[in-house]
Amino acid sequence: MSNQKKQSFLGSAAILTASALIVKLIGAVYKLPLNNILGGVGKTYFDTAYQIYNLLLTFSTAGLPIAISKLTSQAHAQGRENEKRRIFRASIWMFFLLGVLGTALMAFGAPQLAAFQENPMAAQAIRALAPAVFCVCLLACMRGYTQGQGNMTPTAVSQVLEALCKLGIGLPLAWYLVDAGFGLELGAAGAICGVTVGTVLSMLFLTFYLATHRNRTESLDVPTSSGGIIRQILVIGIPITLGNSALSIINLIDTKIVMGRLQDALLLTEDAAAALNGQYRMAMDMPNMVAAFVYPVTMSLVPFAAAALARQDSASANRIVSSAFRIIAILAFPAGIGLSVLATPIMILVLPSQYEDALAAGFHLRILGIALIFICLMILTNSILQVYGREKLPILTVVIGGITKIVMNYILVGNPRIGIKGAPISTLCCYLVIVALNLFFVWKYSPQKPRYLQIFAKPVAAAVLMGGAAWAVFGFASRLLDGVFLSLAQQLSTDPERVQFLARYLTNAASTLLGIFVGVVVYAILIVALRILRAEDVRSMPRGEKLIKLLHLK
Questions:
Q1: N-to-C CA span, the chain
Q2: CB atoms near residue 346 (< 10 Å)
Q3: How many angstroms from the chain centroid is the CA of residue 382?
Q4: 415 — phi, psi (to 5°)?
Q5: Which has the closest alpha carbon to 56: 136, 165, 150, 143?
Q6: pLDDT given at position 547
Q7: How far is CA 76 from the centre of its chain?
């Protein structure tokens, strides 16, 4: 990229984190009302399509863009402009072919894919996502190329554009189709149409950006042949893809087992099984939203740490990895514990028109909140192992964790006394096993052994105190505000059922938000008081030096 200032690791992470925050806020405005529109059954149709879509995307985009980013970063650090151009030209055609194949599979094999998932009514939603596979494949290539040069801005803008289309098109279309009586399966398909349109526009934006920001500087380096570059991309990318796709495959099989055991072992109808599975998937949305904030750190980690290793600067690479560990620990522990202690109130807050579903999802979220911590650590440790050239190890650990999940689901979900409650338990155990193995391998292969107790002890202590404060404030506020909002509801409505609904919802909403606010304040104070954050963790962020002075960081 011409006239481009190289961004630092944490500066790049800050850009992607800011975009992730915007995207997740937009996503919350999209998904939370969508859950209320579709309910548990429609949610299952939506997620069935998305799981198949994610599997195809994982095969085509999970590891290969990281490989492009890594190779581009190395060429960029060495000033090899011709090599960078050859990397992009060779890879874009490979991604074009993958996109065509993925789109064809989803478009023409939708009924068969839905039937495999024990959910035939999801076929329309699967078909609606088909064009998005092609666009996202090209997007992944372009994003990997720009990120490899330390430029995270195009990725950030394209992600926000994609989210806005999903909200502005998908949500109204889903509401219209359900309200007009077209059925939940078409409502789920309508919601997904917004995703497809968003990927198309994001692809056009990145295409325009690359066309107008070409680096025309003359360079004397002799690039590797296209065949050689593709071989390098595959050597680096395939192990990463297998590691990531293993979990997607496991999740696909996991859904099949859950739906199958609910119908075969517990003798539920397809709709009843879909409703229970939908409640679990609603709860799973919350950890997934939070875990998305880990990816900006890992996307920045790979190219910058790889560039440091290419310069044989292992000290810089270790500093980047250590900062990533601390940042994820600071984010993951309070998020996981906060979701767990306020699980049911949060689900009631975001699902006002699906109260029974919210109560059921609250149980799942209590367990999945703790699982969130391990999901975040899994994402980070997978990337660290990839940085150190151990791309095959995440494949092994994910497969072991996935087998744990599948076996436990088969046993627990098929038990009449446990049923769908076994799904979040097996999910927690799955990620716990993966992280335990990953942390061992990171310790074994890192040049400087990470001190896990030193990294995790203070964030855990601060998060537990924060969780206790949030829980106590919620309980106190609920008792204090119950009568206040009951009086307010009686003034707003004369219908007894409406009065009870308003009073219950307003009391829960105010108490939950107050508990979250107090928890955030308590945790922020503890972060500073316990000196969990270091100066090197924020120095490269916007206004980092001022923040260091303000918080007296060392």
A1: 35
A2: 25
A3: 14
A4: -85, 120
A5: 136
A6: 60
A7: 29
